[in-house]
Amino acid sequence: MAMFVEDDGIWCEGRGQAAVGWAAGRPALFVDRDGVIVEEVGYLHRPEEVRLIAGAAEVIAAANRQGIPVISLTNQSGIGRGLYGWPEFAATEARIAAELEARGAHLDMVIACPFHPDGKPPFAHPAHPCRKPMPGMIQRAGERLGLDLAHSWIIGDRAGDLAAGRAAELAGGVHVLTGHGRKDRAEARGLASARFQVRLADSIAAVMTLIPRLRRG
Question: How do residues 41-67 score in pLDDT, each as one tens digit?
Answer without folding.
Answer: 999 999 999 999 999 999 999 999 999
